[in-house]
Design brief:
Largest sheet of chain A: 3 strands, mixed
Largest interface: A-B, 45 and 60 residues
Shape of chain B: globular
Strand content of chain B: 35-45%
Strand order of the largest sheet of chain A: 2-1-3
Radius of gyration of chain B: 23 Å
Distance between the termini of chain B: 37 Å
Oligomer: heterodimer
Number of helices of chain B: 7
Helix content of chain B: 10-25%
Structural class of chain A: mainly alpha
Low-confidence stretches of chain B: 1-69
Chain lengths: ~150, ~425
């Protein structure tokens, strides 16, 4: 019924989502695929993103494309990232792969806020990072970066 | 948190003047900020007594309260381990600047991220952390420098040993850069630094290189800065105005300020114009930076004005701040704005009496006033307090957790930025 073109997005686990082209173009990655895809560009594969995440991403794009100036956009964004960590992480990765700047900003900022109060050890554990400093180097760094919480 | 040992946990508090941590409830932080209290990390009591003179406190909140404020969020291992590097840079660029230093100790890769061009690019596009105050105090040889973050309500001590010995006067701060001046022997010198990157460089000498009143302005669009040397109330008034431009790394000489009697050395820079107060003729002396010449503006000061602080606001607004009234019992602190035609000062706000009484117990008490981005800050050294007026919101509030304990500190607003370049 609608005159606008629709695109089908296929997630890594085979789920398909039909969206308006305008909404799909909010992702610069998809925009690029469509522009360079030629005739067979009505179905786009997004193998980096699972169905659950893709459906949330589409929800974000819909809101931002269809009502970019609405007053509740800010509260939509705030509520959008009130999700558990796994979902947030997947959203951030999806926004990165699909090149959706607004969602990347939003999810990155939310994750950055989670760093508050963490010790270096806790951060290493979380990101599975090996401490490759020697004890002397570490001591030197600690002295240099003594941004302590005191006056 | 114990000084200098191990990992720093932000939730802990120290003795002396403590800022409120992300875990403590706000109202208690003000009472704790006044007076010495040894609060050991394991016992954080809420102190009920309120100091005299403060019948209610409004805490300045510059950051939206997020659901993560009082909770250390546990980040599950397997979810986060496989983040692509670019995405990691995007996230790190949004971590408050003060926390980034802690992250440098995580591993070598994260340590080098700070110097990485990609990271700086991300960081320069991220909105500002929020208003901070930088305080500077030099006790014979050792500089003491601290930064108070208003959004985080916390103090951070910046190692300032990287500055040369002669750095003595805090000229000002803009766009993440801080300018100092001082006497190197008998030679007057100026420097620019970025406290976050611990980098600095001395500016070349002026053509008429004497101790002068300076003001620094940054242009973020062109990523450059200028320093203006104008006449001050005590100095040699025959010296021409000089302007340093970082784009050409040199000073240029401009018109000498016409012979007027300045009534103070207070200056404000706004909309490419520098303003100074004059008593005869009464009004403002305005220097057009682009054109390079001075012009007098005969805008009369409000009657019975005791002190006149000039504060530049956003969007070309210029404010005048000071007390009215000769008799201490009838004094009030007011804020005026210069109208568009630059003819008259229009009253914008008055400090509510309870704040005024709390800020200045004695009429002769010294206070400082400065501002940036439509925030006007009042500090009273005897009280160790800071008060902020938000011009846009028309709201007065104490700066929570901000105990300015050093009597001789110089202070100004500061915006922490890694990408601010000293060149």
């Amino acid at each position: 019924m609608t005159s606008s073109k629709t695109i089908v997005l296929r997630s890594s686990d085979g789920a398909t989502f039909e969206v308006d082209e305008a909404v799909a173009l909010h992702s610069l990655m998809i925009k690029h695929r469509i522009e360079t895809g030629g005739a067979d560009s009505t179905t786009i594969d997004v193998p980096e993103v699972t169905g659950n995440t893709l459906s949330k991403v589409i929800e974000y794009c819909k809101k931002h494309v269809e009502a970019p100036n609405s007053d509740d956009l800010k509260s939509f964004d705030t509520d959008f990232v009130k999700v558990d960590q796994a979902v947030l992480c997947h959203l951030a990765k999806a926004s990165y792969y699909m090149n959706i700047k607004g969602l990347l900003d939003l999810s990155s900022k939310t994750i950055a806020d989670m760093f508050k109060g963490k010790t270096v050890e806790q951060i290493r554990e979380t990101f599975h990072i090996k401490n490759d400093f020697t004890p002397e180097e570490e001591e030197e760094l600690r002295k240099e970066n003594s941004w302590n919480l005191f006056v | 948190m114990v000084l200098g040992l191990g990992e720093q946990d932000e939730g802990r508090q120290l003795s002396y003047f403590v800022g409120s941590s992300s875990r403590s409830p706000s109202p208690s932080s003000i009472t704790r900020g006044l007076g010495f209290r040894n609060v050991s990390p394991s016992r954080q009591k809420v102190i009920k007594t309120k100091p005299r003179g403060l019948d209610e406190e409004m805490i300045a909140t510059f950051a939206k309260a997020s659901h993560t404020d009082n909770v250390v969020v546990h980040m599950e291992d397997n979810i986060w381990a496989m983040l692509p590097e670019d995405l990691l840079s995007e996230i790190l660029a949004r971590v408050p600047p003060f926390m980034i230093f802690r992250l440098r100790s995580v591993c070598k890769r994260w340590n080098s991220i700070l110097q990485d061009n990609g990271f700086l690019k991300f960081h320069s596009q991220v909105p500002s952390h929020g208003p901070c105050l930088i305080t500077f105090w030099k006790n014979s040889q050792t500089p003491q420098c601290s930064v108070f973050s208003l959004p985080l309500k916390q103090w951070y001590k910046i190692p300032f040993s990287f500055l040369p010995q002669w750095a003595f006067w805090l000229v000002g701060s803009s766009g993440g850069l801080v300018c100092f001046s001082g006497l190197d022997g008998l030679t007057f010198r100026t420097l620019i630094c970025n406290p976050l990157t611990q980098s600095w460089r001395a500016l070349p000498s002026m053509h008429y290189n004497q101790q002068r009143q300076l003001i620094m302005v940054v242009d973020r669009k062109t990523r450059s800065f200028k320093v203006i040397a104008a006449s001050d109330i005590y100095g040699d008034k025959s010296l021409p105005t000089e302007v340093y431009d970082s784009k050409i790394d040199s000073w240029s000489v401009h018109q000498t300020m016409p012979a007027v009697n300045l009534c103070s050395s207070k200056m404000a820079f706004c909309d490419s114009k520098l303003y100074m107060e004059t008593i005869s003729p009464l009004g403002l002396m305005m220097y057009q930076l682009d054109a390079g010449y001075w012009e007098h503006i005969p805008a009369k000061f409000p009657r019975s004005l005791l002190d006149g602080y000039l504060v530049a606001g956003t969007q070309k607004r210029l404010f005048l701040v000071g007390r009215i009234g000769l008799y201490s019992t009838l004094q009030s602190m007011r804020i005026w704005e210069l109208d568009n035609e630059k003819v008259i000062w229009i009253e914008v706000s008055r400090m509510p009496p309870r704040y005024f009484r709390a800020l200045l117990r004695l009429s002769a008490e010294r206070f400082e006033c400065f501002g940036q981005d439509n925030l006007i800050c009042f500090t009273s050294w005897n009280q160790g307090k800071g008060l902020i007026f938000d011009v846009d919101k028309k709201a007065w509030s104490w700066i929570a957790g901000c105990a300015l304990q050093t009597y001789n500190s110089q202070v100004c607003f500061y915006e922490p930025r890694f990408d601010a370049s000293i060149y």
